[in-house]
Design goal:
- Helix content is 47%, strand content 18%.
- It is of the alpha/beta class.
- Helix 4 links the parallel strand 4 and strand 5.
- Helix 1 crosses helix 4 and helix 2 packs across helix 3.
- The chain is globular and about 40 Å long.
């Protein structure tokens, strides 16, 4: 599992659970929505640059994007959806390979460690389920990421 991002807390949580057993073709990124709507265009530009750089560097088969959207769940879902759509298009157009992309919206920082553990569990397997699925950290309290993806897909 390769880890990148613009949110140090998410990166730290992912790093703590990362093991050599995780998929080498997986990229996890952590970003935060800015507090001010005026900062959103700059944030989007930074995330786009990060995605293009990391997708080219890693050439992943699966992307898990964690978006910290403190108490702004709907905005976080929209941001995560756009992020994974952009990543999928870039991977197809620039790298010539399909990418399974899943988004997780973290609206409470206390769920950071849980989200990291659920991602680690998911990336221990070989599944490519759930392209385009966006779930919340709150949902991960009750079931695994795979189970949420199956709920969404089925």
């Amino acid at each position: 599992m390769h880890i990148a991002g613009l949110d140090a807390d998410i990166i730290d949580a992912l790093t703590q659970v990362s093991t050599p057993d995780h998929r080498p073709d997986a990229l996890t990124i952590g970003v935060s929505l800015p507090d001010s709507p005026d900062e959103l265009p700059a944030c989007i530009a930074d995330v786009d640059a990060l995605l293009e750089r990391e997708l080219s560097r890693v050439s992943p088969r699966i992307l898990v994007a964690v978006v910290h959207a403190a108490s702004r769940l709907n905005e976080g879902r929209a941001f995560a959806s756009e992020l994974i759509d952009h990543a999928s298009v870039h991977s197809s157009n620039s790298l010539g390979r399909d990418l399974t992309a899943v988004g997780i919206v973290l609206d409470d920082g206390q769920d950071r460690a849980l989200v990291a553990r659920r991602i680690a569990e998911h990336l221990s397997g070989r599944s490519n389920l759930g392209d385009g699925t966006v779930v919340t950290a709150r949902d991960l309290r009750r079931v695994t990421l795979r189970e949420l993806i199956l709920e969404d897909v089925l």
